[in-house]
């Protein structure tokens, strides 16, 4: 059996906040360098992904194929900057690679590709695909008797896709207690407010109606994030879990927060300078 020397997870909330601040800076630098990408949702999801990689998941950058590792799947694949920044910081690939984001020939393309990028567990981007993929992977693990978990980050606009709800029924049918998903509930998508485009509320109730454990948290509160994961593991009741995490799109940068206009597109030089200055002050 392949073993791992993965570092123990951190429970230092101050360290997690510092990590997330650094991740947000890298997101902006990447999108600016590539002159393309999705900064708003990536910034908003930074606390969730930081908490998972630094305080929840069992993984080892020196042994990416460690069989006992937990798996993370970014179903909202267009927000690839957040996972690339975290993977580089963890040591899955050199930090300098981030400067090649979305460039021809780079392994860091707009949507994650598991065949090219170390640490990426599934190629995603087509909305709804990530959760469905995770369901199949989780079922395979359950049949083998594996003990690791599958963590999935879904967008809220993504849940207007029928494929999400097919996956929801599948996960309930097969009692995938090893599947813990998050909804990045920032209430904004390309065309504006999710509730104007295609209403989703009441979202936790919908997931419970499909046979999942589901509750709401503050997606920027590390204690709530960690407690929610612990609760999902402690009381699965034969069900998968969907944690609806209320977040702020563009979190950490005042002029990007709650602005659908920052769903995609690079910051100007002036915008980048202003954003980095804000983030440098915590």
Structure description:
This protein has 282 residues and is α/β, with parallel strands linked by helices. It has a single domain, classed as 3-Layer(aba) Sandwich (Rossmann fold). It contains nine helices and seven strands, in the order H-H-E-H-H-E-H-E-E-E-H-H-E-H-E-H. The chain is globular and about 50 Å long. The strands form two sheets. Strands 1-2-3-7-6 form a five-stranded parallel sheet, sandwiched between helices. Strands 4-5 form a two-stranded antiparallel sheet.
Number of helices: 9
Strand order of the largest sheet: 1-2-3-7-6
CATH topology: Rossmann fold
Query: What fraction strand?
Result: 5-15%
Outline the biggest β-sheet. 5 strands, parallel
Low-pLDDT runs: none
Number of domains: 1
Rg of Cα set = 18 Å
Please give the CATH architecture. 3-Layer(aba) Sandwich
Structural class: alpha/beta
Please provide the count of β strands. Answer: 7
Distance between the termini: 43 Å
**Average of the residue pLDDT scores:** 95
Order of helices and strands: HHEHHEHEEEHHEHEH
The fourth-level CATH homologous superfamily is Thiamin diphosphate (ThDP)-binding fold, Pyr/PP domains
* Portion in helices: 40-55%
Bulk shape: globular
Task: Summarize this structure briefly.
By secondary structure, the chain is α/β, with parallel strands linked by helices. 40% of the residues lie in helices and 12% in strands. The longest helix has 22 residues, at 13-34.
What layout of secondary structure does this protein have?
Blueprint: H1 13-34, H2 39-55, E1 71-74, H3 80-90, H4 129-144, E2 150-155, H5 162-173, E3 179-185, E4 188-189, E5 192-193, H6 194-197, H7 203-209, E6 213-218, H8 222-234, E7 241-246, H9 269-280
Parallel strand pairs: 1-2, 2-3, 3-7, 6-7
Antiparallel strand pairs: 4-5
Helix pairs in contact: 1-2, 1-3, 1-9, 2-3, 4-5
